[in-house]
Amino acid sequence: MRKKKYSVSTILDTTVTYVILIAISLIFLFPVLWLVLASFSKSGSIYDLDGFFPTEYSLKGYRELFTDTAMYDYPNWLKNTLFVASCSAIIGTILVILTAYVMSRFRFKMRKPIMKATLVLSMFPSFMGMTAVYLIMVNFNLVNRLWGLILIYSAGAPMGYLVQKGYFDSVSSSIYEAARIDGASNSRIFAQITLPLSKPILVYTMLTQFAWPWSDFILPKLLLKDKNLWTVAIGLMSLDDTRFTRFAAGSIFIGVPIIILYFCLSKFLVDGLSAGAVKE
């Protein structure tokens, strides 16, 4: 076998590329490393850090996170966050999948205008409509209610249906034609043919719909005034500087589950995103 020869320019280009990638990785890794180490600080205050890192380490922050709940009830905030994120993920996934399937497989008069309108509206940042959202929630008596948050997250989910539509576009039409010849109805085709073939995009949609409410701060801060209804994002932001260790511990703890889910479901995520990005 011939040995593959590398030119000096190729070796130099590869070396420079890897050096740049490693440098960028270290830049992004440093804040994470600092937050992890700060969560083990013994003093608890951000003002007691010697430079970037703590001088003494302890598990005090993690213990107080779940035991000292008189003023800062982290377990209750975590329960509220899990409830909102789970319900929003389930309802939002159903709405997104149904919207994407209809736009992909059915042809009707307003199909293209609706697609163009949703594409244009999705370009605007969501916080632009916060005043209107708050007034609507007040009129429907949904302020200080977790279900108000869930309805907003779920109602906004279908706006991001384009990736799912691209996935359904890639499914061969011959499968649907064969099902129709056999007498299958639209609902049966969707339930028994489309959904079993759509596991990657279902997992991708479910996880992305879960991640947004799990870490969102703006909407809960706007709508939840009762301290017992706070989510983790609001609760952690209410901690003062002397409880920075608890803040860091809470941030790490809430970030771990979503990271584990991403790693466990990475195959489905890649398959769903790549299949939805191209049309055969």
UniProtKB/TrEMBL annotation:
Protein name, per record: ABC transporter permease subunit
Keyword Repeat (UniProt): no
SUPFAM superfamilies assigned: MetI-like
Main location class: membrane
Domain ABC transmembrane type-1, residue spans: 78-265
Keyword annotations from UniProtKB, A to Z: Cell membrane, Membrane, Sugar transport, Transmembrane, Transmembrane helix, Transport
Family: Belongs to the binding-protein-dependent transport system permease family. MalFG subfamily.
Record field: transmembrane: 12-37, 81-102, 114-140, 146-163, 247-270
